[in-house]
Amino acid sequence: MSELRGSLRGLLEGGGSGERPVMIGLAAAALWIAAVLLFWLLGPEGSGRTSGAGWLLRAAGLISPLALIWMAVSLARTIAALRAEADDLRAELARVQDAAASPVGRPREVPPAARPVQTSRAPARPGAAARPQADARQSALPLEDDEPPAAISPIDLLRALNFPDGPDDVEAIRALRAALADHDTMRLIRAAQDVVTLLAQAGVYMDDLAPRPAPAPLWRGFAEGARGPQMAALAGVDDEAALDRATNLLRGDEIFRDAAHHFMRQFDRMLTRMAPELEDEFLGAMTETRSGRAFVLLGQSSGIFSSGT
């Protein structure tokens, strides 16, 4: 039994995946059944003569360890799947962020339509060396340096806040690149990426949350600075386990707490800036993105939807 316990512990800590947990479970079950058969065959005489209650106890003694073995196997496979999903999420977020930082580095993953958005930021920095070039081109391209970057559209903002689902989600990748071209939105997206990644490492996944939608007027009031018990309807997360984990992280993990507060400030500023321009349906959809769900979860865990702070 010590070897069996050691194998199961190694499986759980090592994060085995695929058929490895099943094979270990089959081997452990076979060893247990063989040990029981040997005990019955080689045990003291008369051990096979038992009453009905005795047979019931023997059956329970045989089945209970088998059930525990397969519970351990199922737990190991679940843990392995969760770790693999978290690793995939971290890798995907890092890949998308790297792709956005280098416009020409990943032509297959980001459509060419997104590239002008990134390059349009280059003339935004005035400098002594840049002015002669602007004057030389003034007759051909008047006011080129004075033209502000194109504002991100509401639908692109929603796609960026929800993050791409994979390398084939070209529309979301294009929207993410457009969002990263805007300085304010870029800070929000990167803060959201950090928080979503840290929550995934703690076993809290935004796709598993389904907050109850709140009325758009409440979100508009929140964006205008309203706080207190009248905002309690914004706390729509019913997943107690996720709320407990988020609360424990906010209280006990200084790195997570700093990242969460930075993200909530950026999301709050975005709401304040964008709410007057958005229709109710877009405002509601924004809070249902992966970033919006993270904001609702953290806001509910920190109590900003029910207190005056």
Question: TL;DR?
Answer:
The protein is mainly alpha-helical and 309 residues long. Helix content is 64%, strand content 0%.
What labels would you give this structure?
disordered N terminus, single chain, mainly alpha, 309 residues
Overview of the molecule:
The protein is mostly helical. The protein has three domains: 2-40 and 52-84, no CATH class; 102-122 and 150-181, no CATH class; 182-309, no CATH class. 64% of the residues lie in helices and 0% in strands. The chain contains 13 helices and no strands. It is elongated. The two termini are 55 Å apart. Residues 1-5, 10-16 and 101-149 have low confidence and may be disordered.
Largest sheet: none
* DSSP helix fraction: 55-70%
Order of helices and strands: HHHHHHHHHHHHH
**Which structural category do the helix and sheet elements fall into?**
mainly alpha
How big is the Rg?
Answer: 28 Å
Report low-confidence residues grouped into runs of 5 or more. Answer: 1-5, 10-16, 101-149
Terminal CA distance:
55 Å
* Rounded mean pLDDT score: 74
Shape: elongated
Number of helices: 13
What amount of the residues lies in strands?
A: under 5%
E-strand count:
0
What's the quaternary structure here?
single chain
Number of domains: 3
